[in-house]
Hints:
There is one protein chain. This protein is an all-beta fold. It folds into two domains: 13-137, Jelly Rolls (Sandwich), CATH 2.60.120.10; 140-236, Jelly Rolls (Sandwich). It contains no helices and 22 strands.
Amino acid sequence: MKNTVIHKAASRGSANHGWLHSYHSFSFAGYYNPERIHFGALRVLNDDTVSGGMGFGAHPHDNMEIISIPLEGDLEHKDSMGNTTVIKNGDIQVMSAGTGIQHSEYNKNKDQQVKFLQIWIFPNKKNVTPRYDQITLNVSDRHNQLQQILSPNAEDAGVWIHQDAWFHLGNFENEKTFEYQIKKAGNGVYAFVLKGKFLIDGVEADTRDGFGISGAEKIDFNSLSDDAEILLMEVPMQLS
Length: 240
């Protein structure tokens, strides 16, 4: 049985700390909505803007797959595994927190803001050895098509995580139609519109709207504006 949910951009939780402006698609920190705890294995989707030179001090995580997708600017990462890196638009970063890690994230530049998505996925294995990875993708490979950026398999395109999840990014001209085939039976897809407007399974979704659908084998999309960008997150709907 097909189920859908739409989370309009304006309905998200938000927090403005001066140096950080964050929008929460699901309950997080001071934002709690019992109707929006998670979408299957997708636990957190935060849309963050960090002021120049500011950031998150060292803080712990465990037993969570954490994905960062930079949208603008340069984000500096440091962690307890000894990694010091910078991620920027076109990069994908992943951490398997497993038995426990600490990390910090700072805007590397003092004269411009950083925008990035931070996504948490419940893992299918607990207490794994912590792991870090980042890659740079060819952004042109998502022009008028979906580019895979994450999967459960280390040998596939993109980064990998401890979960039967697949992420894709696409950037489309106006009036382009495409479909997404579910990779694993029982999974659902949460679509997040980064820019522009799409028709998703017959429902209009605008910039920063989220649209979740489960119980379907495929989903039809139609871009309704130029330079329309979308992130698709296929995740298990049942938590192990």
